[in-house]
Amino acid sequence: MDSGIGLLPTAAAMRRLRPDADLVLSSDPATMPWGPRTPEDVTELALGCARAAAAHRPDALIVACNTASVHALPALRAELEPVLPVVGTVPAIKPAAAGGGPIAIWATPATTGSPYQRALIRDFADGVEVTEVPCPGLADAVQHADTEGIDAAVAAAAARTPREVTTVVLGCTHYELVADRIRAAVQQPDAPPIALHGSAGAVAAQALRRIGADPFPPDGAVAPGGLTVILGGREAALPEVALTYAEGVLLAPVAPARG
């Protein structure tokens, strides 16, 4: 679940790890963006998406949204666990810090400077220099595949990112959909390649661990799992905007061949 198509990277990661898994994607894009909303509003919206997904009796619920993980995890776990394991999304600060620094964390304005993110930096950055970079408008532009808006928001955030940064943590799941554009904007000429750290792969793997499931080998021949899309509590087709990103194309149901 996520506010919008920010769930695509984690869903695609799960599809790669377990091609046979039936996936339920629950979001409420009409209420985006969640970042500027109050914690109470975010919690209520997240509960709505979670309840719609839980009605399909999944093995686990992945909260593929940093904002919802910041504000709504306690309420989601109180309502759904232990029957339904709830897996949140945490910015990949710890693995990023393991590679040295300096590090920049790109996140929504609401998450940037929040006690939640500051605690993660304190606990996991291990003395590495960290710059928090707010990215106003980027998640919304990604949600609508607004190329000009994406380029403008990425350029503005890159201008706030110190030139000496070697690693960028993508602190919003929407940002992983435009990782290549972010890397190109931050990369300095003649500098070593910038390292980007998203959360999708690690979160998908953690969800499998929570339910005691192993990933299949990448060359395993298995029947593809199904895909159910829920928008605002109602079943729907995968939004057209999702197909502008590679992750959405990976998840899209294959149309039957016509003879």
TrEMBL record:
SUPFAM superfamilies recorded: Aspartate/glutamate racemase
GO molecular function: glutamate racemase activity
Entry protein name: Glutamate racemase
GO annotation terms (biological process): peptidoglycan biosynthetic process
Species in which this protein is naturally found: Streptomyces melanosporofaciens
Keywords attached to this entry: Isomerase
Pfam families the record matches: Asp_Glu_race
PROSITE patterns for this protein: ASP_GLU_RACEMASE_1 (PS00923)
